Amino acid sequence: GAGVSQSPSNKVTEKGKDVELRCDPISGHTALYWYRQSLGQGLEFLIYFQGNSAPDKSGLPSDRFSAERTGGSVSTLTIQRTQQEDSAVYLCASSGGGAGNTIYFGEGSWLTVV
Amino acid sequence: AQSVTQLDSQVPVFEEAPVELRCNYSSSVSVYLFWYVQYPNQGLQLLLKYLSGSTLVESINGFEAEFNKSQTSFHLRKPSVHISDTAEYFCAVSEPGGSYIPTFGRGTSLIVHP
């Protein structure tokens, strides 16, 4: 399809395991965002990629979280040594860049750490 | 730094009644303002946005929002809601010329009862 695609849609993992979440943005979009959505907490910014610029990692909650974007397209968010507080919906979004551009969201990856 | 406050976490309303979802922002510069909607089990999608020009902006499904600079508000309104409007609504702000990372509010859950 033409939208932002995320996988897996649901992931249950044991505490201490590593997880990788994948995002395939809309073709041609230079900007890619990761947000985390927890119940009652709204959207928490994690990381932002824009073209070939260095990513803005200011929202990553700890050094267990990292993300990369290969070839300016697909992005992977990695959470190492998962903790129960990491349980949330991880949302990926993309846009054409620019503060006024519409951001298009994927349906999210629901992570449950048990 | 920019911030967004959505004053109501939940707004219950009867079908065909009017509704207002409140959003206030804080920013030291001019802003772009957005409302996104998240229907159950779906990703966020843009409802409407203010970039410049007319302070009243409308969506295709009957919602409208008015940018009020003096009150730093961007409240969302609809004169008559439908059951299908039941969703989570997020207000967001970004700064033209600044970081392209929008800040989202915590969301307001609109619950429309028959």
Structure description:
The complex is a heterodimer of chains A (114) and B (114). Chain A has 114 residues and is mainly beta. Chain A has no helices and 10 strands. Chain A has strands at residues 5-7, 10-13, 19-24, 31-38, 42-50, 65-69, 75-79, 88-95, 104-105, 109-113. Chain A is globular and about 40 Å long. The model of chain A has no long low-confidence stretch (mean pLDDT 93). Chain B has 114 residues and is mainly β. In chain B, strand 7 and strand 8 (64-68) form a beta hairpin.
Essential attributes:
heterodimer; A: 114 residues; mainly beta; four-stranded antiparallel β-sheet; 10 strands; 0% helix; globular; B: 114 residues
Q: In what range is the share of β-strand residues of chain B?
A: over 45%
Amino- and carboxy-terminal Cα gap of chain B:
41 Å
Individual helix count of chain B = 0
- General form of chain A: globular
The parts of chain B where pLDDT drops under 50 for at least 5 residues are none
Number of strands of chain B: 12
Shape of chain B: globular
